[in-house]
Amino acid sequence: MSAGAVIEQYKRWGNSVELRVFDHLPYQRRLEIARALAVATTSSAEQPLQMLPITPEEVYAKYAGVVALVDGQFGGYVGAMQPLKHGVRTMSEVGSLWVPGEFRRHGIGTSLTKSVSRLIQLDGITPYAFCNPSSKGIFDASGYQERTLRDVPEEAGSLCARCPKLGARVLGVECCDTVMVYEEQHDK
Ligand SMILES: CC(C)(COP(=O)(O)OP(=O)(O)OC[C@H]1O[C@@H](n2cnc3c(N)ncnc32)[C@H](O)[C@@H]1OP(=O)(O)O)[C@@H](O)C(=O)NCCC(=O)NCCS
């Protein structure tokens, strides 16, 4: 990744928000964040939202990750999976989007999504996502458009087998989430 450690800094509701590349954070910080994500995505409080559980190892294995820090505190994460070929495109799934309860509805989820999408698009990769009802608006506002399973790599549907709410899905037949593909261009 060519991006520096701090991608963006801004003030929101009197707090300083910083977006940083996960891989550039100190080891201990990465460990804490990966563990926090694993706990959050297996917690019963989040289950109705159909978010796939993620292990710390899977957080480290992502192609790219962006973290929000609110006055230095962990304020959210989004990751992009290792790219896959799909026709002429190289595509990466943006997901594991999570913002701690106390920081929600301040635009952090949207900032994270826009940021990771631009970052990987600059590498020539087309981002896509499976959105649940609470994240669909964020992806709508971040340059994504509704598509179908045919527009994303076939392997992408295999993750549905791990969906905690609805169980295994058959690719192309049905999907519990909305398939969205990033259609904006950012050349600089
Ligand atoms: C989904 C999630 C990441 C959203 O994070 P967030 O930081 O609250 O996201 P945002 O603040 O950018 O946007 C959320 C909503 O708040 C609204 N909002 C943003 N800033 C706002 C403000 N200052 N005042 C009021 N509303 C605001 C947005 O317009 C958006 O509205 P919408 O739901 O109608 O689209 C968070 O709720 C979460 O972690 N949920 C559990 C995990 C999950 O479901 N992840 C998605 C997996 S695909």
TrEMBL record:
Domain (N-acetyltransferase) ranges: 17-166
Gene Ontology terms for molecular function: acyltransferase activity, transferring groups other than amino-acyl groups
Pfam families tied to this protein: FR47
InterPro entries: Acyl_CoA_acyltransferase, GCN5-like_dom, GNAT_dom
Top-rank taxon, per record: Bacteria
SUPFAM superfamilies noted in UniProt: Acyl-CoA N-acyltransferases (Nat)
Protein name (Swiss-Prot/TrEMBL): N-acetyltransferase domain-containing protein
Organism name: Candidatus Saccharimonas aalborgensis
